[in-house]
Amino acid sequence: MTPELVVDNVTKTYPNGVRALKGVSLRIPAGMFGLLGPNGAGKSTLMRTIATLQEPNGGSIKFGDIDVLKQKDAVRRVLGYLPQEFGLYPKVSALELLDHFAVLKGFVDKRQRAEIVNSVLHRTNLWAVRRQRLGTFSGGMKQRFGIAQALLGSPRLMIVDEPTAGLDPAERLRFHNMLSEIGENVVVILSTHIVEDVSDLCSRMAIIASGRVLLSGDPQSAINTLRGRIWKKFVARDELASYERDLAVISTHLVAGRTAVHVMAPSRPDPSFEEVPADLEDVYFSTLHAADQKAA
Amino acid sequence: MLGRIFAFEVRYQLRQPLFWFAAAFFFLLTFGAVTTDVVSIGGSIGSVNRNAPFVLMQILLVMTVIGTFLTTAFAANSVYRDFESQADAIFFSLPLRKGDYLFGRLFGSLAVSWLVYIAVLLAVGIGGLMPWLEPERVGPFQLAPYVFSMLAFVLPNVIITGAIFFALATLTRSLLYTYAGVVVFFVAYAISGIFLGDLENRTLAAIVDPYGFGAFELVTRYWTVAEKNTGPMPLRGILLENRLLWLGVAAAVMLFTWVRFKFTTAAGGTGRRRRRELARRRPAIRRVHDLDAAAAPDAHRDDRCPARRAVCDHVVRRARERLRFDLLHG
Asked: Which of A144, A150, B181, B236 is the most exposed, fewest CB within 10 Å of its CB?
């Protein structure tokens, strides 16, 4: 039985005065948990804090019996972490560095280590290029290497911070498949600003912005609350401002060069709007919109 | 675990071109000094044998002073490269002990720095065999002075300077501060040499010289040519005191580094990383809220940091050029 991760009222203010986390509380059970939010929402701060790399100013984080903020070594023994931005040693081969990481994770026995390393190389589809220098890796390969090192030693807590940023669609799909194969008994936290990452992969999610949790739950019931309340219309660019003033415009899209707006309203604003089925993106933008309205 | 980190570090550093360039440079410089009159290291040697133990020790001492830049390059890089390459987040979230990580890296890089000086020994050894040398100026090959110099001069000097600049690089996480530290160290060394140059201060000067140069000069001051040609100096008296004092300082610096170092990734770095990433990402469709949220917290930093970074980059580049210059010109 994998314990759940409980984040309770965590706050963080950076020395430069930026309040990155303003009392974040979350319960994260085993399975894939999506942490969705715009850039600068505090996602990475939260991820780094859970990954024992940064101290919060207040609050507590528990993973089962482990006090994440105090028993860092115990956390690191069960942790797999893919940082948002990371680098590698360009002149070292994938195999060599992965082997070194495995040593540092405590796999001292040579044969056992080779098995573990080979298994993650196969799982991340890097076997064929294992002897290549890391400096020659493409963005997608590097990201897969990042997951490979995180998977070493079957972690029970995985933190995957913005893994798909910068990947092309094919790589992203491959990456999604890889993530979906991680066991169901592992707590996996996937932070992202890309809605599809969450809708494709996650059974539970939270939306975070400006250091606060705006919504948490399962994606489908969040979508259900918006049923019949999302309306779409193509508008001219110069009309956009007036629509934004008069209606709850939650998002604007370009579709083949034309601007489409999504409006949230209990009933059709006027006959020129058509009803569209709500999706997770509407949940995301309506949540952010509501938070903006409250702040304004 | 320390041993494994040490071994990885040695393998990693031996693969760097710096090691081979430095070894080749040290070899050529020493070879030139031993076999020609064009190059001289550490002053004229008069009628002493070209490959005398005294000459060997003197050359090695001078080389360890120049080599401070080299040792700094290796030792500073050993942990700093994790910040520079942004591999720190991965390493620091591993179940590592601080001491294993720090000292495995430090000792590995020091071992590699130390190995570079083998090139000096080879140059003296091989130089002594060159056919154009006057036979009466070449003594027989002796192993003892080589071993003595490598253990009593080179090893402590590498440890002392390495520990100090490793501490600077690891705790400040900045190459700029580290190389500025090297410069300050040299200035202080030169000034103390001037102030302590007169006769009554000579013992004090010998004690506080971190390279052991003062102690070496004090002991060999009245050596005859025969003594210079035959023996290594005994490791006792002022030389031993000097070595123990500075190894003690090095140990204290290492302890300080160990106490102060934390497995945390710099929070200040995220703004820069974030911006660089945003610049790279350039999404095809930008969403209204994404833009608002992204622009607000970063806007005030955008106009200030590039200039500062450019200045830093420039100074660091200059420091690196300086390093190369010093290596090439002695």
From this structure: B236
**Total beta-carbon pairs less than 8 A apart between chain A and chain B:** 124
At B211 the pLDDT is 93
Round to whole Å and give the CA distance between A258 and B84: 44
B305 Cβ neighbours under 8 A, 6+ residues apart: B271, B272, B275
CA distance A165 to A153: 25
- Encoded tokens for B233: 């100096």
Tens digit of each residue's pLDDT (9 = 90 or more) over B18-72: 999 999 999 999 999 888 877 777 766 677 888 888 888 888 999 999 999 999 9
**How far apart, in whole angstroms, are the C-alpha atoms of residue B135 and residue A215?**
89
Residue A94 parent element (H or E): helix A94-104
Contact yes or no for A85 and B94 at CB 8 A: no
Question: What is the number of other CB atoms lying within 10 angstroms of the CB of residue B129?
Answer: 11
With an 8 Å Cβ cutoff, are A15 and B81 in contact?
Answer: no
Rounded Cα distance between B163 and B253, Å, is 7
Structure tokens at A221: 């019931």
pLDDT confidence of B325, banded at 50, 70, 90? very low
DSSP B189: H
For A212, the enclosing helix (H) or strand (E) is strand A212-217
Q: What is the pTM of this model?
A: 0.82
The one-letter code for the residue type at A116 is: I
Q: How far separated are the first and last CA of chain B, in Å rounded?
A: 38
Q: What is the pLDDT, as a whole number, of residue A47?
A: 94
Residues of A in contact with B297 (CB under 8 A): 18, 40
Average pLDDT over residues B298-315: 41
Check CB contact under 8 Å for A84 and B273: yes
Task: Name, of A201-205, A254-258, B228-232, the range with top average pLDDT.
Answer: A201-205
In tens, the pLDDT along B265-302 reads 865 444 444 444 444 443 333 333 333 333 333 333 33
Q: Does A275 touch chain B (CB under 8 A)?
A: no
Is A48's CB within 8 Å of B89's CB? yes
Q: Which two tokens stand for residue B304?
A: 């200030």
B81 and chain A: CB distance < 8 Å anywhere?
yes
Q: Which helix (H) or strand (E) holds A121?
A: helix A110-123
Consecutive H or E run containing A170: helix A169-180
The interface predicted TM-score (ipTM) is 0.89
Residue B318 has pLDDT above 60, yes or no: no
Say whether A52 and B93 touch across the interface (CB within 8 A): yes
- Contact status of A106 with chain B (Cβ, < 8 Å): yes
- Which of B8, B278, B297 is the closest to A100 by Cβ? B8
Nearest to B95 among A41, A106, A253 (CB): A106
- Report residue B321's pLDDT band, with 50, 70 and 90 as the boundaries: low
Range list of H helices, chain B: 2-14, 17-35, 53-66, 68-84, 88-92, 98-116, 118-127, 144-149, 155-172, 175-195, 202-208, 213-220, 225-230, 237-260, 269-281, 288-302, 305-329
Q: Of B10, B288, B304, which to mutate for an interface test with A (greatest number of A Cβ within 10 Å)?
A: B288
Q: Do A285 and B287 touch (CB under 8 A)?
A: yes
